[in-house]
Amino acid sequence: MTAKLYDLTELQKESRMGTMGTLDTARDIRRIDLSNFEARKAEIADQLWDAAVDVGFFQLVNHGIRPEEIQDAFAMAERFFALPESVKRQYPHQKALNVGWESRAQVRPSTGTPDQKESYQITRPYMAELWPTEAELPGFQATMLAFERKSWAVGMQVLSCFAHKLGFADDFFTRAHDPEQADYQSTLRLLHYYAIPPEVQDKLDLWRAGAHTDFDCLTLLYQRQGQGGLEVCPGKEMDAQAWTPIPPDGDAITCNIGDMLMRWSDDRLPSNFHRVRNPQPGEYMGPRYSLAFFAQANRSAVIEGPARKYPAITAGDYLKQRIAANFKAY
């Protein structure tokens, strides 16, 4: 299979011309059962590989994170975003480290307009002075760090399956994403997409999140029931703009392959486009919350596929390259 990494110049032009497609195409977003993982690992690895190669997106069920733990994380995120802006501004986004709070700051090359959301990024080694105080938000730090670690553990299970299929040691990616190292850069991102005010509901020319690929190895996304909008389009089908909705399911974690793993797999595992569209007239127009864990290899980890299709590069340098390619001045 041949895959391709894009800079989004052409996609950006299409979006500005108003030609971003809305065609819904049915695709099989497969649900992978992780129960009894160690005993079923070979079977699960085959299922994950097939789903990833086919669409690049899949959903995990029986993943070991209890529903109440996910609900607690969502409740904490909602409380954080409900804080006064004057409080949130005390914990500003630090771009070089991808930590902290920002609002309507991310301009996708695919749209040329700011994503209609606010977010708060947690990357363990770089959080000094960026946590709300216990007086401002009791229990927030402990809850989110515990949830980040549980997400990391699920992500490492999935990545161990891909390591096996690629011919690496099963713990290959676990060692590359070691949270005990100072250059750990996996990130838990709390997201709040703003409600659509009634006066603009018939002028939905903005995007909650424009079309993009993720730069990491693997993304784990938690969605709230009834708060949809996520859509995927495999890169080979971008010309047709054929998008497939992925409805939220509170029992499942939606996962996708990122650019970093695509390179590490010598392009055998595709990193595909996805977006979060605004609701259409007649749909729920309220706020949308999601939680995303981005498994990004430690900065010093060396990315080199088994067939050495591309030169070896550190994960830190690779991320800089992807950001430069996709967020050029325009």
UniProtKB/TrEMBL annotation:
Pathway: Alkene biosynthesis; ethylene biosynthesis via 2-oxoglutarate. One of its GO terms (biological process) is ethylene biosynthetic process. InterPro entries: DIOX_N, IPNS-like_FE2OG_OXY, IPNS-like_sf, Iron_ascorbate_oxido_reductase, Oxoglu/Fe-dep_dioxygenase_dom. Residues 183-297 form the Fe2OG dioxygenase domain. Transmembrane segments: none annotated. It catalyses: L-arginine + 2-oxoglutarate + O2 = guanidine + L-glutamate 5-semialdehyde + succinate + CO2; 2-oxoglutarate + O2 + 2 H(+) = ethene + 3 CO2 + H2O. GO terms for molecular function: 2-oxoglutarate oxygenase/decarboxylase (ethylene-forming) activity; metal ion binding. It is an enzyme of class 1 (oxidoreductase). Pfam families: 2OG-FeII_Oxy, DIOX_N. The keyword Protease does not apply. Its cofactor is Fe(2+). Its EC number is 1.13.12.19, 1.14.20.7. Keywords: Ethylene biosynthesis, Iron, Metal-binding, Oxidoreductase. Gene3D superfamilies: B-lactam Antibiotic, Isopenicillin N Synthase, Chain. Belongs to the iron/ascorbate-dependent oxidoreductase family. PANTHER family: 2-OXOGLUTARATE (2OG) AND FE(II)-DEPENDENT OXYGENASE SUPERFAMILY PROTEIN-RELATED (PTHR47990). This is 2-oxoglutarate-dependent ethylene/succinate-forming enzyme. It comes from Hylemonella gracilis str. Niagara R.
